[in-house]
Design brief:
Blueprint (H helix, E strand, L loop, with lengths): L1 E6 L4 H11 L4 E7 L8 H4 L11 E2 L11 E4 L6 H10 L3 E4 L9 H8 L13 E3 L1 H9 L3 E4 L2 H14 L11 E7 L14 H4 L4 E2 L7 H13 L5 E7 L6 E8 L9 H8 L6 E3 L17 E6 L6 E8 L3 H15 L16
Parallel strand pairs: 1-2, 1-4, 2-3, 4-5, 5-7, 6-7, 8-10, 12-13
Antiparallel strand pairs: 8-11, 9-10, 11-14, 13-14
Keywords: Amino-acid biosynthesis, Arginine biosynthesis, Cytoplasm, NADP, Oxidoreductase
Catalytic activity: N-acetyl-L-glutamate 5-semialdehyde + phosphate + NADP(+) = N-acetyl-L-glutamyl 5-phosphate + NADPH + H(+)
Enzyme class: oxidoreductase
Length: 347
């Protein structure tokens, strides 16, 4: 049984980890930290976990995290890098759901997250947590920086077109038009997340530049083996969960005869959590709600030179905590789908 610790268990990704791990046959949550809620039973804060999770919150200083096999950081940026070195030295594997170990260049991290990286020596060994791309590296890793929610959808949407240096699309003019539910902003008091502000409304934000942009370009460039440029525009939608990414790619003249539907179907044929829909489909966010599944549809209007890829995921599951559990399974030799074969919720 994998002994699991969770640092920062009161946010949406924290409670989602608790929900998923409560049904995991090979893992047990033995510690959940929160300075503010120390002493409170987890199930008292989250009644949905009554009868499923019996631990209480404890302060990080008083929690023997070094006795865990793995520690998840479901915390704000900057927390994991302050504690990772000590845990790794104790033989504990670390999975960070924030951005501390996503970006390989510490200068880029400082630019986008307005803080200096405190353990740049660990960046070289940190594995990027996108299993469909880095499965083998994750299996051997002791430190993983999980992919962000938007970056997961965009990279999986473009992976079959770029992998192995494929020359199918123009890699310098890619566009990702992405929409997310309000839970993507985290569990905090914020005017923009109020029902009267976010409900019955739709808006773009961070058009000048979003901190996920360098992560997406870093990941796509690594997949392709060369520089990739992408325009990324996020939007806030009046729903709680879900991401819908519409990705536009211009097909190169020499690739116009490619069967892109077959390309996607063949690439993801062995992927448990990626579902390529039949040609002409339009995936909906509600079709993945509460699950670790990504659904993808490939369109080519008028059989022309523009490819449109539609991708949906639950931002809290495949976009965060579910993918983190998927990563834990790989790191500990568990079945990759352990605790994650969840049928989406409908309605």
């Amino acid at each position: 049984m994998i002994k699991v610790g969770i640092v920062g268990g009161t946010g949406y990704t924290g409670v989602e980890l608790l929900r998923l791990l409560a049904g995991h046959p090979g893992a047990e949550v033995v510690a959940v930290t929160s300075r503010k809620e120390a002493g409170m039973k987890v199930a008292e804060m989250f009644p949905s976990l009554r009868g499923r999770v019996d631990v209480a919150f404890s302060t990080p200083d008083e929690t023997p995290l070094e006795q865990c096999d793995v520690v998840f950081f479901a915390t704000p940026h900057g927390v994991a890098m302050a504690q990772a070195r000590e845990l790794l030295a104790a033989g504990v594997k670390v999975i960070d759901l924030a951005a501390d170990f996503r970006l390989k260049d510490p200068a880029v991290f400082q630019q986008w997250y307005a803080m200096e990286h405190s353990c740049t020596d660990l960046l070289a060994e940190a594995v990027y947590g996108l299993p469909e791309v880095n499965r083998d590296a994750i299996r051997a890793a002791r430190l993983v920086g999980m992919a962000g929610c938007y970056p997961t959808s965009v990279q999986l949407g473009l992976l079959p077109l770029l992998e192995g240096g494929k020359q199918l699309i123009d890699t310098q003019t890619l566009i990702a038009d992405c929409k997310s539910g309000v839970s993507g902003a985290g569990r905090k008091a914020e005017v923009g997340a109020l029902l009267a502000e976010a409900g019955d409304n739709f808006k773009a934000y961070a058009v000048k530049g979003h901190r996920h942009s360098p992560e997406i370009e870093q990941g796509l460039s690594a997949i392709h083996g060369g520089p990739v440029k992408l325009t990324f525009v996020p939007h806030l939608t009046p729903m709680i969960r879900g991401i819908h990414s519409t990705i536009y790619a211009r097909i190169k003249p020499e690739a116009l005869d490619t069967d892109f539907q077959s390309l996607f179907e063949q690439r993801y044929a062995g992927e448990h959590f990626v579902d390529v829909l039949p040609a002409g489909s339009h995936p909906e966010t509600r079709s993945v709600r509460g699950s670790n599944t990504v659904r993808i549809a490939v369109h080519r209007p008028g059989n022309g030179d523009l490819l449109i890829i539609l991708v949906v995921e639950d931002n809290l599951v495949k976009g965060a905590s579910g993918q983190a559990v998927q990563t834990m399974n790989l790191m500990f030799g568990q079945p990759e789908n352990a605790g994650l074969d969840i049928v989406p919720l409908l309605p």
